[in-house]
Amino acid sequence: MKLLAVLLVPLLLSVCLGKVGDFIRDCPGFFLKLNGVISPPTRFVGNQYKQICQTLNDKVEFASFYDTNNRIPVYSAYKFIGKVNCTRRSGKWFIEPQLDDQTQGVNMKSESGGTYGDHQALNKDYEKQTPRGEYHKGHLVPVYHSSTQSCANATFTLTNAAPQEASFNIRWFHHAESKMEEKMSTDCINKGWNAYVVTGVVPGNTKLKNRVLIPSHYWTACCCLDNNDVPKLSLGYYAENINKSVINEVTLQALENELNIKYGQNFAVFPGGCKMNIRKF
Ligand SMILES: *[C@@H]1O[C@H](CO)[C@@H](O)[C@H](O)[C@H]1NC(C)=O
Ligand SMILES: *[C@@H]1O[C@H](CO)[C@@H](O)[C@H](O)[C@H]1NC(C)=O
Ligand SMILES: *[C@@H]1O[C@H](CO)[C@@H](O)[C@H](O)[C@H]1NC(C)=O
């Protein structure tokens, strides 16, 4: 009996802790905690939406809320630890096996050798575009904000990416991702505080390969908490997913107002706080 219990426990654990599961149960560490409550961004209701605790080599690196109908994420969430200068771009893209086959393991893996794609984007969806190369695989969690090489590698998963206009991708890096990194490092991390980031997209009207929805907008926001989990600072960026779009730096409140309209329902990036009486960085 005892032996059976010993054998069963690991089995039950591996069944319950599937990585396509529940943010609060499976990977709470990527979401800010306000008044003792773990507070992920709004999770839309519907079977097509999946909560992915992004796992590579058995290590959970960040979280993505994925829309299996549109085959793009709604958002990815992570904790920013501080910039390091030693991460290289792996360029090797993974997929999420559990989205197409629930019996698969927890780790992201290469699409080769499997039959995937019913519920997610594959590499070929981004290939042979006309006009050529118009859309990149745009990272939601960027390589640039990764603090380890294994996390940088894990950002190369198609459930963390959406079609992003090629030159806008580069400008988004300069005017949103790297600016936000600088502000978080200076005004939050250097004070020993904690920074949480959420980056998302708004669904547009057209698809790549009749499969992968092209977002109309990209957005990102961060919230900085002191060591008593008291919100100190917040900031957001918002832009259209087109060649020469203006990249707006906005308050969290302004961003959420915009997202409420664009998503057609109430949407909170940081539910419960980080915007009332909080100054922009
Ligand atoms: C990374 O490089 C920047 C400038 O290139 C430097 O200011 C910073 O201190 C470096 N950070 C680390 C962790 O080495
Ligand atoms: C990251 O990916 C590169 C290239 O795919 C690989 O050579 C390297 O071992 C990986 N590093 C880690 C820490 O996973
Ligand atoms: C996008 O903008 C860049 C820089 O302004 C320009 O060189 C390029 O031709 C534009 N591409 C498209 C497809 O409009």
UniProtKB/TrEMBL annotation:
Q: Which residues form the ENPP1-3/EXOG-like endonuclease/phosphodiesterase domain?
A: 59-270
Q: Which residues form the DNA/RNA non-specific endonuclease/pyrophosphatase/phosphodiesterase domain?
A: 58-270
Please name the Pfam families in this protein's record. Answer: Endonuclease_NS (PF01223)
Reply yes or no: does the keyword Signal apply: yes
UniProt entry keywords in alphabetical sequence: Signal
Q: Which Gene3D superfamilies match?
A: Extracellular Endonuclease, subunit A (3.40.570.10)
Gene Ontology molecular function: hydrolase activity; metal ion binding; nucleic acid binding
Q: Where is the signal peptide?
A: 1-18
| Keyword Signal set for record | yes
Q: Which PANTHER family match?
A: ENDONUCLEASE DOMAIN-CONTAINING 1 PROTEIN ENDOD1 (PTHR21472), ENDONUCLEASE DOMAIN-CONTAINING 1 PROTEIN-RELATED (PTHR21472:SF30)
Protein name, per record: Endonuclease domain-containing 1 protein
Organism, as annotated: Silurus meridionalis (Southern catfish)
